[in-house]
Amino acid sequence: MTDRILGVLGGMGPLASAHFITRLTLLTPAQIDQEHIPAILWSDPRIPDRGTAMRGEGPDPLPALLRGIDGLIAAGCGAIAIPCNTAHGWFEQMQAHCSVPILHIARAATEELRSKAPLGAIVGVLGTQATLDMRLYQTSLTHAGWDVITGSPQDMAELVMPCIHMVKANQVREAHAPLMRAIANLVARGAQAVVLGCTELPIAFQAGPMPSLADGKQVQIVDTIDALARASISWARN
Amino acid sequence: MTDRILGVLGGMGPLASAHFITRLTLLTPAQIDQEHIPAILWSDPRIPDRGTAMRGEGPDPLPALLRGIDGLIAAGCGAIAIPCNTAHGWFEQMQAHCSVPILHIARAATEELRSKAPLGAIVGVLGTQATLDMRLYQTSLTHAGWDVITGSPQDMAELVMPCIHMVKANQVREAHAPLMRAIANLVARGAQAVVLGCTELPIAFQAGPMPSLADGKQVQIVDTIDALARASISWARN
């Protein structure tokens, strides 16, 4: 049993944070309720859209993010996980605001990538346009030694962003096919692994069969929800 | 958009409360994050086992339940849902303790039963042994006019309780077959509908195909997680 309580700042989107809580539970070795990890989910879908704010076209989400963090700390949480990649654009301000560690989703995903693609390999990154624009993954993965490619502008506009919006609208099955096409296009450009760098994407990914890839190619997938869940379990059990 | 924040007292078990949050999200009509329902999940799997306490063989869960309720109210929640049927054995004490409504899971399930089985029909109820022993469903359903049957002592010991324990231990697929056998046995005894009166049971139910029933019989299922989620959405949107 652990007395460490995990705080989860969620609602971005709400299905992604629900899926995070499910995966946190399923990935925890436990035989009875009391062996699972105490967690508090602050699911506030009213938090202003992160992408819109990043483009300077909508209200700043930071005050709502900090309110959630304050609520989680007041409830006794000892660390915070945020199952939203784009919200990590405000990571420094959030971490500076609070006394407990925030588990960084991109660092967790990068750890998982190490076992899935050798350094030097081409790695594809998908996410919201805002996450790609802020280079949440590109800079650190390139620095670590991978060769990073992202979805083409056309794929981002016609496949990836529609997929993300469909998951937020509960159209999970419909979101599957466009994501598979975006992944297949990255693989055709040489990607050996693809980072699903938006927490809506793993939900769309698991809603149907694996992508059909040309020439019998294979691809490794880094699921940022699972990566953050495993980092959270490590924290709780440490 | 709603400013009503739903409190969810969970962790009993943690997979059931994760599934509740998922169903709350999927059952909400919403096109974007900001149209979903704000919710705070207090998932405290350390809460002492409800069944053991009911038999006088373990610590009282009430103090931990009240701590969770206090935490949810401090965070601003305007109503509380508890996705655990057995915990409703302490419903009166919990409701007396707090100023906001607690949405009763058995009342929500009974509402759903009305559209699934005519009054006078035989209705099967499955749940923890403690939930059956406290007659959470039997008294009210009988009073309303249904003819209630429960799992046989042998089925409770060999199928239903093992199924519940398997879900709490993350063995979701393994939990499916024993539940299907328990349901089939209730149908063979005449049940036209079965209430899954423990929030682990819907998780086991959906982990595989429908039960195979003798003589081409059909059965209606009342999922207490979905029933409580729908009651929660009604509260939030009202």
Report on the architecture of this protein.
- 2 copies of one chain form a homodimer.
- With 238 residues, chain A is an alpha/beta fold.
- Chain A is built from 11 helices and 8 strands.
- A 4-stranded parallel beta sheet of chain A has the order 2-1-3-4, with helices on both faces. The first copy, chain A, has a 4-stranded parallel beta sheet with strand order 6-5-7-8, sandwiched between helices.
- In chain A, helix 4 (91-97) links the parallel strand 3 (79-81) and strand 4.
- Chain A is globular and about 55 Å long.
- The model of chain A has no long low-confidence stretch (mean pLDDT 96).
- Chain A binds chain B through residues 1, 3, 11-15, 17-19, 21-22, 24-26, 28, 30-49, 71, 74-76, 165, 168-170, 172, and chain B through 1, 3, 11-15, 17-19, 21-22, 24-26, 28, 30-49, 71, 74-76, 165, 168-170, 172.
- Strand 2 (39-43) of chain A pairs antiparallel with strand 2 (39-43) of chain B.
How many structural domains are formed by the residues of chain A? 2
* Largest sheet descriptor of chain A: 4 strands, parallel
CATH architecture of the largest domain in chain A: 3-Layer(aba) Sandwich
Distance between the termini of chain A: 12 Å
User: Helicity range of the residues of chain A?
Assistant: 40-55%
Number of strands of chain A: 8
Provide the CATH topology of the largest domain in chain A.
Answer: Rossmann fold
**Number of helical regions of chain A:** 11
CATH level 1 name of the largest domain in chain A: Alpha Beta
Rg over alpha carbons of chain A:
17 Å
Strand content of chain A: 5-15%
Based on secondary structure, the structural category of chain A is: alpha/beta
User: Largest interface, with Cβ-Cβ < 8 Å?
Assistant: A-B, 45 and 45 residues
Give the helices and strands of chain A as they follow along the chain.
Answer: EHEHHEHEHEHHEHHEHEH
Average per-residue pLDDT of chain A, rounded, comes to: 96
Q: Ranges of chain A with pLDDT <50 over ≥5 residues?
A: none
Order of neighbouring strands in the sheet with most strands of chain A: 2-1-3-4
